[in-house]
Amino acid sequence: MMNSLRNQLNVQIYSKLAAAMSASGVVGADPSVILSLHLPGLYVVPNLDRNSQKTKYYVSNALDGVLACNWNAIKKPGKVSDIYKSILDGKQTPLVKLTEEQEEILNEANSFLFWVDGSPTEKYQKYLDEQMKYLEALDNFEASLATEKNGGDKVPEKINQDLRNAEASWKKNGYKYDVEIAIENIRQYESLEPAIFWKKLQDKFSKYTECFDIQSEFQVVEANPPYEHWFQEFGWSDFKFDSLDFDNQRQSGSVGFDISACCSCPDVLSEPNSQVGPISIFGSALFEEEIKFDDENFLLTCKLRRIEIVRPWLDINVFHSRAWRWSPASVSYGVSIASGGDIAGRILPTGVMPVLPMTAILARDVNIYWKSNKGISHIKEGLEKKLDLNIGPFRISRAIIKEEHRIYQPDPQIIGYISTILPKSPNPEPTLPWPLGEKKSDIWP
């Protein structure tokens, strides 16, 4: 554990958020996901015109960034769409073809999940809707379970029952078994018909390429729920962090990597940014003296919502497929998209895109109860001077001092992302029949 109470608070808030979001990075948890937090969060502009091309451009670019393999949400160069396009343009495929039986299985799976225009069928859409309800119930359960493990109240029976009901509804009403069989069949067979598979991906990428103004070309990135529903009252889970969590929360496995061997990640993973603390002020010497954090008199509560990132032009199976490699003529030849990794196993993923952000975490109604008079007075002074303040990932520069010891920040903000750790990619299967090297011409042109 880090010596500074300031850094301990960041680590413990992160660790409980990771546990609440099923991304704890410990043995027994899903090893393929990592939570990355903005330190501090980013305010979301509400009530933009959903039909405006400017809104589509704003949301798409905000959700198309590449993240480093870090518990801080550190942006890497480029966009997800740029890296994906480099694969579409620079891949080489094996000389293979599906059997009639495999082709029939693949066609049935595609028909079950997608209409001709590529949009989800009613059953697949129901699966996605029921999945969101299940994840909301799971977040409430995991947050309550973490509180119980840290010495707080036991998980309420209603939360247990809500989770059971959501899981049962996902299985029954969301056609979970049938959908996941179809997804697996597509993953297994689709890339083994290269000409059709890659042509479809190219067409889909072009379909979702749009322009804003004259020169601002972008790939459409959507969200579930869509942007206009982000601010509605339903769909939120509850989160709290108090002194028991500060003392007892098990540290996430995503914290404290030694990343000296990682060629693609900034060397900041083992220590948070020095400006990040219980209270950070940017561009001011007001708080050069560190505020003493009194963990016995601290409580933070807020509402959290998952925003699933939907890239209609991207097929994640491309990163899992072993039926492509870089063409020797490609400008990307030799580039590692991802090395693969395991957070719980302490295997750090590297590459130009080691993780793929799948979910954005939206927070609102942040309430902070803190009986430290010095802390509250410093925050009040900072707010009066319109300074940028944050406690962990929660930006509070627009906060209101509601009572003597209470701070209230209602504005919605993106505080981080849940990403999937990509497998090794490219990772071509050597037993497939690959094209032989082409003979070079000695004549120009």
Structure description:
By secondary structure, the chain is an alpha+beta fold. It contains 11 helices and 16 strands. Strands 1, 7, 8, 9, 11, 14, 15 and 16 form an 8-stranded antiparallel β-sheet that branches. A two-stranded antiparallel sheet has the order 2-3. A two-stranded antiparallel ribbon has the order 4-10. β14 and β15 (406-409) form a beta hairpin. The chain is globular.
Query: What share of the residues lie within helices?
Result: 25-40%
Q: Give the terminus-to-terminus CA distance.
A: 64 Å
How is the quaternary structure best described?
single chain
- Shape type: globular
Mean pLDDT across every amino acid position = 85
The count of DSSP E runs of length 2 or more, i.e. the number of strands, is 16
Rg on CA atoms, Å = 24 Å
Tell me the structural class. Answer: alpha+beta
Count of domain modules: 1
Estimate the strand proportion.
15-25%
